[in-house]
């Protein structure tokens, strides 16, 4: 028996969907939270005990607001098997920065490692990449000046 669901579209007009936190599977929430705090200046923004943590990256959202990471411990062997590679060879995070190399160094100094051969799509300009504690790729792209069409 299939169920049919209907959505009152008028309710969506007043409240457009918004992106919530990006889920990151980790073996140790405390260690991962400390890593992201040191590497990217993330700050706790939720409960700091139990099998998950929420962190905010100040000003990292496209609108200038905070972007959020939800660090979650695996609940099954299948989830455990993809910690550190839940996005395959693609980046888990893409961050725009004024200085890719200094951010890459901070990530490595915080316990991450350099990354190579990261798919970037059609992108030119300075870029760097690193891996978090578990091997997830963080792609860093240098902000390019916006050109105004004449």
How is this fold's topology laid out?
Blueprint lengths: L8 H6 L7 E4 L3 H12 L2 E2 L7 E6 L9 E6 L4 H4 L12 E5 L2 H10 L3 E2 L12 E5 L5 E6 L8
Parallel strand pairs: 1-4, 5-8
Antiparallel strand pairs: 2-3, 3-4, 6-7, 7-8
What does this structure look like?
- This protein is an alpha/beta fold and 150 residues long.
- The chain is 21% helix and 24% strand.
- It has four helices and eight strands, in the order H-E-H-E-E-E-H-E-H-E-E-E.
- The protein has helices at 9-14, 29-40, 77-80, 100-109, and strands at residues 22-25, 43-44, 52-57, 67-72, 93-97, 113-114, 127-131, 137-142.
- The strands form two sheets. The protein has a four-stranded mixed sheet with strand order 1-4-3-2, covered by helices on one side. The protein has a four-stranded mixed sheet with strand order 5-8-7-6, with helices on one face.
- Helix 2 packs antiparallel against helix 4 (100-109).
- The longest helix is centred in the N-terminal third of the chain and has 12 residues, at 29-40.
- It is globular and about 40 Å long.
- 23% of the residues are buried.
Number of helices: 4
Please list the strands of the largest sheet in the order they lie side by side: 1-4-3-2
Structural class: alpha/beta
Shape category: globular
The total beta strand count reads 8
Name the poorly predicted regions: none
Biggest sheet architecture: 4 strands, mixed
- Quote the beta fraction: 15-25%
Q: H/E series, N to C?
A: HEHEEEHEHEEE
Helix-residue proportion: 10-25%
Q: Radius of gyration over alpha carbons?
A: 18 Å
What is the rounded distance between the termini?
59 Å
Mean pLDDT: 81
């Amino acid at each position: 028996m299939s169920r049919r669901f209907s959505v009152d579209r008028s309710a969506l007009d007043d409240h457009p969907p918004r992106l919530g936190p990006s889920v990151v599977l980790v073996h140790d929430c405390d260690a991962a939270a400390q890593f992201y705090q040191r590497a990217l200046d993330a700050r706790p923004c939720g409960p700091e005990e139990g099998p998950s943590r929420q962190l905010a990256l100040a000003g990292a959202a496209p609108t200038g607001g905070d972007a959020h990471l939800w660090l979650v411990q695996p609940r099954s062997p299948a989830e455990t098997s993809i910690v550190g590679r839940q996005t395959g060879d693609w980046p888990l995070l893409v961050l725009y920065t004024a200085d890719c190399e200094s951010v890459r160094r901070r990530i490595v100094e915080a316990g991450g490692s350099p990354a190579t051969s990261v798919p970037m799509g059609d992108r030119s300009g300075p870029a760097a990449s690193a891996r978090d504690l578990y091997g997830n790729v963080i792609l860093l792209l240098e902000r390019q000046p916006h050109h105004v069409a004449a």
